[in-house]
Design goal:
The chain is an all-alpha fold. The protein has 3 helices and no strands.
Length: about 60
């Protein structure tokens, strides 16, 4: 997600940065199977945001 995407969501950048830090900290603690589950979940979440037009489609086009 780019800064422009975040700005459109009207979410404070510091909040987003904290959430990213929390996710990274959690990801360092999980096992391989759990990490695969998280990646699959993240892909589904990204697909949801792409459908809403808040993330670029894969390949760069919106």
């Amino acid at each position: 997600m780019t800064a422009a995407d975040i700005a459109r969501l009207d979410v404070p950048l510091a909040d987003v940065e904290q959430q990213i830090a929390d996710i990274r900290a959690h990801a360092r603690k999980v096992t391989g199977k759990q990490r695969l589950d998280l990646l699959t979940e993240a892909d589904a979440e990204a697909a949801h945001w792409r459908r809403l037009g808040l993330l670029p489609r894969e390949g760069g086009a919106r």
